[in-house]
TrEMBL record:
<protein>
    <submittedName>
        <fullName>ABC transporter permease</fullName>
    </submittedName>
</protein>
<dbReference type="InterPro" id="IPR000515">
    <property type="entry name" value="MetI-like"/>
</dbReference>
<keyword id="KW-1133">Transmembrane helix</keyword>
<keyword id="KW-0813">Transport</keyword>
<dbReference type="InterPro" id="IPR051322">
    <property type="entry name" value="AA_ABC_Transporter_Permease"/>
</dbReference>
<keyword id="KW-1003">Cell membrane</keyword>
<feature type="transmembrane region" description="Helical">
    <location>
        <begin position="17"/>
        <end position="39"/>
    </location>
</feature>
<feature type="transmembrane region" description="Helical">
    <location>
        <begin position="145"/>
        <end position="168"/>
    </location>
</feature>
<dbReference type="InterPro" id="IPR035906">
    <property type="entry name" value="MetI-like_sf"/>
</dbReference>
<feature type="transmembrane region" description="Helical">
    <location>
        <begin position="82"/>
        <end position="105"/>
    </location>
</feature>
<dbReference type="Pfam" id="PF00528">
    <property type="entry name" value="BPD_transp_1"/>
</dbReference>
<feature type="transmembrane region" description="Helical">
    <location>
        <begin position="188"/>
        <end position="211"/>
    </location>
</feature>
<comment type="similarity">
    <text>Belongs to the binding-protein-dependent transport system permease family.</text>
</comment>
<feature type="transmembrane region" description="Helical">
    <location>
        <begin position="51"/>
        <end position="76"/>
    </location>
</feature>
<keyword id="KW-0812">Transmembrane</keyword>
<keyword id="KW-0472">Membrane</keyword>
<feature type="domain" description="ABC transmembrane type-1">
    <location>
        <begin position="13"/>
        <end position="207"/>
    </location>
</feature>
Amino acid sequence: MSPELANLILASTLDTLYMVAVATLIGTLVGLPLGIFLATSGKGELFEAVAVNRVLGLVVNAARSTPFIILVVAIIPFTRLIAGTSIGTTAAIVPLSIAAAPFIARIVEAAVREVDQGLVEASLAMGATPLQIVRKVLIPEALPGLVLGVTLAIVSLLSNSAMVGAVGGGGLGDLGIRYGYQRFMPEVMVIVVIVLILLVQSVQTLGETLARRVNRRLRRS
């Protein structure tokens, strides 16, 4: 491998990590409260708002069911408005974040709904407010599932970040298309695939390790 190619792979890997990290942060900041609200705003729940719950559920389902490559193209005007351009790593963060938020929201909703409702009822009986229950009961109890959910979201974002390279998003996907496909350098494509596999495996292993540690800590407490 030439030094030039090695530098390209390193730079593209860093671009991919940058896109995924920022999109994960934004997606979590939006998806976490949204998922908690979806899990606690049904009939008879902490923040009962059935109509709002249904509308948000439809919006989340619509966003999740849209193929990512179509989403990228469809929101190009919005991406330009936010990032000032529709190409490059910073621009790619916009569709990645929009795709991540509803994905994380559904994961959070599922994790929160798995919490024993007896704990919620006991907290209400002791005079805890809904916000206190969310902060001190629901989130801590659902934390192992939340960690695994965010891990799954990161893996999905790594896949999407490679896909966004097809429309000039930068990162490893862009490198694989420009050099591996357009310049007929199959070795570059192989290296890109290997790097992506290593990234996914590293994220999955780290996420599972953190989830086990959190779970053991909850059981001890």
